[in-house]
Design a protein that fits this description.
With about 130 residues, this protein is an alpha+beta fold. The chain has one domain (about 5-125). About 30% of the residues lie in helices and about 30% in strands. It is built from three helices and six strands. The strands form two sheets. It has a four-stranded antiparallel sheet, with helices on both faces. Strand 1 and strand 2 form a beta hairpin. The chain is globular. The two termini are about 20 Å apart.
């Protein structure tokens, strides 16, 4: 990936929440696909999972590198106390030749998102603010 996890997360967090639901990379309204371009080489292909827990929200992002079609995944947990993220470490393969199935990535994402929620709560309780 040419974009860093932090660049991907900050780009995603700037997208209007209603646009996250209305538009995605494959939408027919192609002028809105630019919302998903992190940089010239990296784009967010979609948001296959959203965990909504009152004020805490977590997202699983599928990331694609344009020139190699390499796929990766990033989770983002957002709470009133800040946000944190994590990157899927194993090689996920390419867009048309995945090394991991959706069920495996989703199960990983749910566990990580709830762990990040807990960490953000704990850091709020100690007076520090969650950050990347």
């Amino acid at each position: 990936m040419t974009a860093t996890r932090e660049q991907i997360v900050h780009h995603f967090l700037r997208i209007n929440p209603t646009d996250i639901v209305r538009y995605n990379w494959g939408c027919t309204d192609h002028h809105n696909t630019k919302l998903w371009h992190v940089d010239d080489d990296t784009y967010i292909n979609g948001v296959p999972l959203t965990v909504d827990r009152d004020l805490d929200v977590g997202h699983l992002l599928e990331i694609v590198e344009k020139d190699t079609s390499a796929v990766s995944y990033v989770v983002v947990a957002v709470t009133p106390n800040g946000h944190q993220s994590a990157w899927w470490e194993p090689d996920a393969g390419t867009f048309f030749n995945r090394n991991v199935d959706t069920e495996t990535v989703t199960a990983w994402a749910v566990g990580v998102i709830y762990g990040l929620f807990q960490h953000l709560r704990e850091t709020a309780d100690t007076g520090s603010r969650g950050a990347e």
